[in-house]
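FORM 7B: Structural annotation worksheet

SECTION A. Query
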Amino acid sequence: MKLNEISDNIGAAKKGKRLGRGIGSGLGKTSGKGVKGQKARSGVAIKGFEGGQMPLHRRLPKRGFTNIFRLDYNEVSIVRVQVAIDAGKIDASAPITAEVLKAAGVIRRVKDGVRLIGPGEPKGKLSFVIAGGSAPAIAAVEKAGGKVEATAKKAEAAE
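SECTION B. Predicted structure
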């Protein structure tokens, strides 16, 4: 084998379009860009531009706001936790925290905490140390003999 005999596999390298090489090529003169104008030139970025008319995104009214203090919780169902316990990923005798759920693969990342939601009934006594939970979920855990310790701060009653 010689260096001048080396070639790529057939079909591995696609030939580029030869633009502006005469009318016979089908891509001559304007090179497939149509006729003159802004979009025929290079460096064009006109997303949302409507030819001088007020763009739609500026004609529509603004609504609502984003609360910068809003907390983003991971919501975990009792059923999902029970499946992880049955699979041996979570030790049911130890308190279940956000870090334990993350290590077991129940949640992907710990956001601002974990909230326990229904549906489902735990099979044994479970102890949760999490941000909070829904009333039915907490009731189901307590009915089975477990407890839920909420670490999230409750909104103070306005006086």
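SECTION C. Observations
The longest strand covers residues 74-77. The domain at 74-150 is CATH 3.100.10.10 (Ribosomal Protein L15; Chain: K; domain 2).

SECTION D. Sign-off
Analyst initials: ____
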